[in-house]
C-alpha cells in the first residue's frame, strides 16, 4: 500500500514549534482532539492540521500571558498587595492583631456577653421606671440666642452689622437661612465692615452676576472663612474668571472654603480657586457633580502638604483610577477626609493612604462606599491612632471583625455612625463594652440586629453619650429604652423614627422628657435640622 502524500516516510514534516515542550503539548492536544472528534480511523493529521493546532496553542498561551499581565496590573493599580513596601509592613505587623493571650478585648467582651445572657435567662427581671425628674434637665435658651432669633425674623429691617462679632454674624446667618430669608441684600450686610468670616448656607437664588459682585465687594485680605453652600447656579467658570479679572490677587488669607452643592463647578473652575487662595487648608466640595479625578490632582498639586480638611463626598464624577489614588496619597497632613457616596471607592483606593498618610487623621467618612471591606477597617484600626469620629454607614461587606479591629486601635473614638450595617447584636454590644465609655455620639439607625444585648451595654457603659440614634431598631422594646434613658444621664438628643413597636402611652410619656426626642408622632419634621440635635462630622470643620 502506497503511503499518503503527506506521510513523513516520504518527506519529513516540519513543525514550526519554538520549544520541545510546545511539540509535546501539541501532540497531546492532537490526541485529545482525535479522541473527541472520533477521528482515529481517518488517518494521521495533515500538515495544515498541525499548523492549525500550533496556532491555537500559541493563541491560548498568549491569552494566558495577557490575562496574567492584566491581573498583575490591576492588582498594582487597585490593591495594596503587590506593593513591596505595603507587603513588608503587613508582614511585620501581622503578629500584632491579637494580644499576648490570643484573645482581644473584643473577643473577651463577647464571651462576657454570652455569660450575661445566660444569667439573665435564669433570673427574673422587672420593668424599669422612667424617672423624668432625675434626668438632666434641658437648658433654657440664652437671652443672646433669643435676641438673634428675633433679629432673624426681622432681617429685612437690619441696616448694619457693624461691631457684631463674627460668631454672632454666623449664628444670625444660620437663623435667617432656617427661615428661608437669605437674599442678596442680606448677603451684602454680611460682607460689610471687613469680617473675617462669611457664612451663607443657602445660596440657591444667587446668580452669576450677584456672585461676582459679592466676591468683589468683600474684604478679601481679612477674609479667612467663606461658606457659600448650594451655590450651584452661580459658581461657574465664567463667574470665577470674571472675578479674578477684577481682583487678580484673589483671597490671599482664605483658610476655609465651603461650596457644597456647586453643581456647575468644573475642574478648570477649581483650578482658578486653587490659584486665588494659596493658603487654603479646609475645602468642602460635597456634591460638586461635575468634578472628576483631575480635581483631586489639582488640589494635591496645590495643597498636598498643607491641606488639613477635604470633603469630596457625593462627587460622582470622580471615578476609581490611578490619577485618583496617586493624588490622594499626596495629602500628607489631613485631619479630616470624607469620600462618602463615592461608589467606585474600594479597599485599594484607600489603604495606601491609610498606611502612609493618616497619622494626623481625626475624622473619616467612608459612608456608602459599598466596596469597602473588613480589610480596610483593619488598616483604620491599625494606623488611625488619633481617630475621633468615623462614619461607616451603609457598608454591606462589613462584619463583626470590623468592630473588633476598631476596638484594637481607635482608642480615642468618640463618635461613630453604623447606619444600615449588618453587625450582630453581640458584636455591637462587645464594641460598646470596649469603647462605649468614651462615646458621645452613636448612630445605629436601621441596624436591624440591634437588640437587648446592645441595650444593656448602652445603659451600663455609655455614660457620656449625648447623641443617640435608634431609628428603626425594631427589636428593641419599651423596657430596654427605659433602661437606656434612665442610665445615660448625659443624653441630650435621641432619634426614634420608625418606633411603632411600643404603646402610644409610652410615646406620650417620652414627649414630656427633657431630652430632645426626634421622630415621635406629632413632632416637627424639621427638628432634625437643628445642629444641636445631632451634629454632623462636617460641621466640626465647616
UniProtKB/TrEMBL annotation:
Domain of life: Eukaryota
Gene3D superfamilies attached to this UniProt entry: Ribonuclease Inhibitor
Database matches in PANTHER family: F-BOX PROTEIN YLR352W, PARTNER OF PAIRED, ISOFORM B-RELATED
Record-given protein name: F-box/LRR-repeat protein 4
Organism for this UniProt entry: Cardamine amara subsp. amara
Amino acid at each position: 500500500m502506497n503511503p499518503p502524500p503527506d506521510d513523513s516516510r516520504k518527506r519529513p514534516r516540519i513543525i514550526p514549534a519554538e520549544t520541545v515542550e510546545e511539540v509535546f503539548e501539541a501532540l497531546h492536544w492532537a490526541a485529545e482532539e482525535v479522541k473527541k472528534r472520533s477521528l482515529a480511523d481517518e488517518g494521521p493529521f495533515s500538515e495544515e492540521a498541525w499548523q492549525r493546532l500550533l496556532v491555537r496553542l500559541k493563541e491560548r498561551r498568549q491569552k494566558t500571558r495577557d490575562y496574567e499581565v492584566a491581573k498583575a496590573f490591576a492588582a498594582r493599580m487597585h490593591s495594596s498587595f503587590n506593593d513591596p513596601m505595603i507587603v513588608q509592613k503587613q508582614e511585620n505587623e501581622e503578629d500584632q492583631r491579637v494580644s499576648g493571650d490570643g484573645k482581644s478585648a473584643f473577643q473577651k467582651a463577647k464571651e462576657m456577653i454570652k455569660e450575661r445572657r445566660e444569667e439573665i435567662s435564669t433570673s427574673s427581671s422587672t420593668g424599669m421606671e422612667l424617672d423624668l425628674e432625675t434626668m438632666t434637665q434641658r437648658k433654657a435658651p440664652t437671652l443672646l440666642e433669643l435676641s438673634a432669633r428675633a433679629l432673624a425674623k426681622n432681617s429685612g429691617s437690619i441696616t448694619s452689622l457693624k461691631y457684631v462679632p463674627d460668631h454672632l454674624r454666623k449664628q444670625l446667618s444660620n437663623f435667617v437661612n432656617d427661615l428661608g430669608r437669605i437674599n442678596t441684600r442680606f448677603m451684602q450686610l454680611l460682607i460689610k465692615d471687613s469680617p473675617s468670616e462669611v457664612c451663607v448656607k443657602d445660596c440657591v437664588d444667587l446668580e452669576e452676576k450677584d456672585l461676582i459682585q459679592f466676591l468683589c465687594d468683600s474684604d478679601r485680605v481679612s477674609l479667612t472663612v467663606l461658606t457659600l453652600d448650594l451655590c450651584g447656579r452661580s459658581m461657574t467658570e465664567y463667574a470665577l474668571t470674571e472675578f479674578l479679572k477684577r481682583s487678580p490677587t484673589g483671597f490671599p488669607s482664605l483658610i476655609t472654603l465651603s461650596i457644597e452643592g456647586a453643581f456647575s463647578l468644573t475642574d478648570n473652575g477649581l483650578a482658578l480657586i486653587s490659584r486665588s487662595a494659596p493658603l487654603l487648608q479646609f475645602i468642602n466640595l460635597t456634591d460638586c457633580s461635575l468634578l472628576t479625578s483631575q480635581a483631586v490632582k489639582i488640589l494635591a498639586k496645590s495643597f498636598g502638604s498643607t491641606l488639613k480638611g477635604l470633603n469630596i463626598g457625593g462627587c460622582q464624577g470622580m471615578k476609581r483610577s490611578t490619577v485618583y489614588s496617586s493624588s490622594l496619597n499626596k495629602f500628607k497632613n489631613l485631619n479630616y477626609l470624607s469620600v462618602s457616596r463615592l461608589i467606585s471607592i474600594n479597599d485599594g483606593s484607600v489603604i495606601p493612604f491609610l498606611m502612609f498618610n493618616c497619622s494626623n487623621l481625626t475624622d473619616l467618612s467612608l459612608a456608602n462606599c459599598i466596596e469597602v471591606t473588613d480589610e480596610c477597617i483593619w488598616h483604620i484600626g491599625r494606623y488611625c491612632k488619633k481617630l475621633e469620629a468615623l462614619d461607616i454607614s451603609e457598608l454591606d461587606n462589613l462584619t463583626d471583625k470590623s468592630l473588633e479591629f476598631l476596638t484594637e486601635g481607635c482608642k480615642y473614638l468618640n463618635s461613630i455612625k453604623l447606619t444600615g450595617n449588618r453587625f450582630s447584636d453581640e458584636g455591637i454590644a462587645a464594641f460598646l463594652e470596649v469603647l462605649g465609655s468614651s462615646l458621645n455620639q452613636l448612630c445605629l439607625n436601621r441596624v436591624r440586629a440591634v437588640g437587648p444585648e446592645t441595650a444593656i451595654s448602652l445603659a451600663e457603659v455609655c455614660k457620656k453619650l449625648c447623641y443617640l440614634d435608634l431609628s428603626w431598631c425594631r427589636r428593641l422594646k419599651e423596657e430596654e429604652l427605659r433602661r437606656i434613658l434612665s442610665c445615660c444621664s448625659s443624653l441630650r438628643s435621641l432619634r426614634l423614627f420608625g418606633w411603632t413597636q411600643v404603646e402610644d402611652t409610652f410615646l406620650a410619656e417620652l414627649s414630656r422628657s427633657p431630652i430632645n426626642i426626634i421622630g415621635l408622632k406629632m413632632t416637627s419634621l424639621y427638628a432634625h435640622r437643628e445642629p444641636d440635635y445631632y451634629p454632623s462630622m462636617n460641621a466640626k470643620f465647616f
